[in-house]
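A further point concerns the way the authors explain their paired sequence and structure data. Nothing conveys this as quickly as seeing an actual entry. An entry of this sort, consisting of the sequence and the corresponding backbone structure tokens, reads as follows:
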Amino acid sequence: MSAWIVSSGHIDVLVHALAQYEVVSRQLGVEGFRELGQQLWQGNHTSVNYRYSENTPAPRYHLRTTEATLDPVAVLKAIRCFDYQSCEHPGWPDSQAHHLTEALHTAVLEQHPDLGERVNGPCGETYRYTTLPAWERAPWGINVLEDVIPVPA
């Protein structure tokens, strides 16, 4: 398995989705959400460092937000991508980052049961999604938060 560092935009999507799907309270405020993003990004860096025997610290995370509702399929794919890039180290199953993405994944599927179900995933779990065309269109790695905001038809 290979792994890479996700962008800060990818972390923005996860942090925004954690609030959108009420996995964490919006009352955390800007600094609380910035810290969550920092934890997620550090988890990703820990994985890549472990995988490639490096010791590169995560840069400071700068939170970007939006009032828009994120596309749930794109959020699911962002979670899968993040998990895939972050599960390389032995501490992943017990990490805060893993617990956050698992809770987010559950929350998205609870609010959108028509999108699929979690059977397991990377590093042990598998997902079955019923939205294959939308899944294929969604980005794997996200550059900016706006990449997962649905465009009005």
In short: The two ends are 38 Å apart (CA to CA). Residues 9 and 143 are 5 Å apart (CA to CA). The longest helix spans residues 29-52.
